[in-house]
Design goal:
About 40% of the residues lie in helices and about 20% in strands. It is α+β, with helices and mostly antiparallel strands and about 270 residues long. The structure holds flavin mononucleotide (FMN).
């Protein structure tokens, strides 16, 4: 067993196989791969949080209404672009709610499901396992919200202030060298994080791919929601992962940031 492992490891080194290729190959679904029964999946799901509770932090309710949208669906799709100039704009709580809800909000209660009564969201999710958590940082640019880092709770249509303060400089250092300004120029920065085990317990390595797909679904909805609201948006891959994870106080291994978005004034 051990010998085989080393042979494989050496093979990888000798042939310079890039890790993405090894990963992609080993995450393919085979005809003879075993699966779990629905009961086993539900048992495991019940051991995992649907959304982290952050029990000691108060729920701040979001509005139950959406910010008004005048743009048509097609104009929204065709108008989606990275904001040409990143400029801060004060947002209403309704605008924040619209973006978060379009991103990962609850749409259906799923009460008729015979196995598990978990709610369903605006985005598709492999096995309806919803492995992502959303956090955002704002420095006084959202009506009624103090500066700090917030956690989104889709099931409650609420957010929680999990760390209050001005962290502009800390976040700025976590962004790659050509874009430290983004934190000062965006109304808020969204952090899309993945709790990998929520997907990989069922789908193994392919579940990792699923978490990345899902972040793409969320980010696209966020992009479209911002565009529909005549706001600007930027997708951010250029950040130092370990610094961002440390800032969010997540371990970076079981739970790590996989994507960021910035929302700013429309232009
Ligand atoms: C995964 C991903 C990561 C990105 N990261 C950054 C980034 O860190 N900084 C940036 O300025 N733009 C970033 N972008 C934006 C792209 O540069 C932009 O989408 C691309 O140039 C196409 O332009 P458009 O969005 O206006 O259509 C990213 C886009 C994606 C999809």
């Amino acid at each position: 067993m051990i010998e085989k492992f080393w042979q494989q490891a050496e093979l990888a080194i000798e042939t310079n196989t890039p890790s993405w290729e090894l990963f992609h190959e080993s995450s393919k679904t085979g005809h003879y791969d075993g699966g779990f029964t629905n009961e086993q999946v539900v048992e495991e799901m019940n051991n995992l949080y649907e959304t982290f509770p952050y029990k000691q932090f108060e729920m701040i309710p979001l509005p139950t209404t959406f910010a008004p949208v005048e743009k048509s669906f097609l104009d929204t799709i065709m108008g989606r672009k990275t904001a040409s100039e990143i400029k801060v704009q004060k947002l209403t709580l309704e605008e924040l709610r619209t973006i978060l809800h379009c991103g990962y909000g609850v749409t259906r209660d799923n009460k008729d499901n015979e196995y598990i009564e978990r709610t369903l969201r605006t985005v598709p999710s492999g096995g309806a396992l919803y492995p992502l958590e959303l956090y955002f940082y704002t420095n006084n640019n959202i009506e009624g919200l103090k500066s700090g880092i917030y956690h989104y709770v889709p099931g409650e249509n609420a957010v929680q202030l999990i760390r209050e303060g001005n962290f502009d400089d800390e976040i700025s250092e976590s962004l790659v060298s050509f874009q430290p300004h983004l934190v000062y120029d965006c109304s808020f920065l969204l952090f899309i994080t993945a709790v990998f085990n929520r997907s990989v317990f069922k789908y193994k390595d392919k579940g990792y791919r699923f978490t990345l797909f899902e972040a793409g679904h969320v980010a696209q909805n966020v992009n479209l929601a911002a565009t529909a609201l005549d706001l600007g948006v930027i997708n951010i891959g250029g950040y130092h992962d370990r610094m961002v994870d440390r800032f969010l106080k997540i371990d970076g291994l079981n739970h790590s940031t996989i994507y960021m978005n910035g929302i700013c004034a429309g232009n």
